[in-house]
Fold this protein.
Amino acid sequence: MELCSFLTLDSLITDPLTHDFMRKALLMSSLVAAVCGFLSSYLTLKGWALMGDAVSHSVMPGVVVAYALGLPFSLGAFIFGVGSVALIGFIKQKSRVKEDTVIGLVFTGFFALGIVLVSKIKSNIDLHSILFGSPLGISLSDVKQTIFISFLVVILLLIFRKDLMLYCFDPRHAKTVGINVFFLHYLLLTCLSLAAVVGLQSVGIILVVAMLITPGATAYLLTDKFDNMTVISVLSAIISSLIGIYVSFWFDLETGGSIVLAQTFIFLFAFLFAPRYGIFKLKKLFAGYK
Amino acid sequence: MESINYQNFRIDAENICVDYNGKVALYDANLRLKPGQICGLVGMNGAGKTTFFNALTGFVNISKGKIRINGESVRSAQKDQTIAYVPQNEGIDSQFPISVWDVVMMGRYGSMNIFRCPRESDVQAVKDAIERVDLTDHLSTPIGNLSGGQRKRTFLARAIAQRASILLLDEPFSGVDIRTEKLISELFIQFKNEGKTILLSTHDMIHVREFCDLVLLINKTVVAYGETSEVFTPENITTTFGGISPDFLFGPES
């Protein structure tokens, strides 16, 4: 077995680093995880998990069309991501159908369109890597795009960090004191679309929503301070990515799935043992033994 | 006819209508309030109280009519931090990971730079506001760990820190302890003396008689408006609440 060739813990960690594709995967996935983790604080507090799911699935036809036309895939994904949200808003306003139903039917429609397009266009599109991610096989042009988009999202979030927090917490107050709530709404949606675009390279379209909500949910269980929540969310996302990639390398597993599973385990750990909000409230347990 | 100087009115809402996707929530509503006046907004659930607040803050657009705040548009009132909104306890996410200090600081956001970096004056305003609502011991307490009354006081402090001249309060007395109720009523007297204008919605008829100079009874539109002693009659209240007698609603004593 391959595993037997690694003799020490040290070589378990360092040997994968001798591979160029592994170094690239670890770096890029950490970057993507940090961006998605940062955003996930806002999404979980705003209650936009379903919206994140919708946007990330809806980018599918955009990615396919962009590939077919030789455009940057992020452009196509972005247009369809924002388009799906606009369509959801429009249908919700013009019909009596409830919002979660509208979200569900719009994103599945977009996703289905993407799958049909793939089967029709049959270019060099690798359906598997779109659906499940391919952090190990990321191309140089994708790397450039990912770095650019990641920094763009991080800078936007850093500038409007407090406004977005206020928007999530109390949009009515924001509006009352003259803060542009409309702008913030679309800023958050834009960041969501862009983060979904970079996230899908790591874990694929189907699982990218996990990158956008799980780290935030984990952090929410661990702190009562917003800034701490952001930091914990980013850290847990990065750690999950590193663990996921290493584990997938050691045991020859699907990488995207491994990353998300690592996030899920970290969430479960917080769910059970978080000092204040965990099932077993560690703080109280320790206090009892003193 | 005498000409009206609109500058004299803090709030001047004229024949305003609000509809949500064709469904009328409020129509032909009028309200005029001067500095130092306290007005009670009374009506059933769904009578348009929150909609009225939303129209005044610019959170919803009016489809007809005109709103002047200190003689200016709602938009410029927003820019000038003229109006502060104190939400119902139920209207906010009490599990949001945010401290008393952070919430009160949000009252200063509108007058800060784009990064919302607090200046010394902002810090001082927040400190003073928190002291006025007697929460100095809870500066860094997460709002989730506060009692209902303490949370209400936190949002009052935010309005104070904002230095708004108009306060809109949604059910300020619901779900609060006696201490908070006493503190709020003391603050009301101070606000009145400072010349602030207060519009508060309430279900509690005793509070209307106690604090409000004026009362606005609404049921999708204005049922009655004027001095509390004149307007707040059993007949008007019955009309406002769709034919149910005030005895039934508030007991024979009220």
Notes: The domain at 2-289 of chain A is CATH 1.10.3470.10 (ABC transporter involved in vitamin B12 uptake, BtuC). The radius of gyration of chain A is 20 Å. The CA atoms of residues 199 and 282 of chain A lie 33 Å apart.
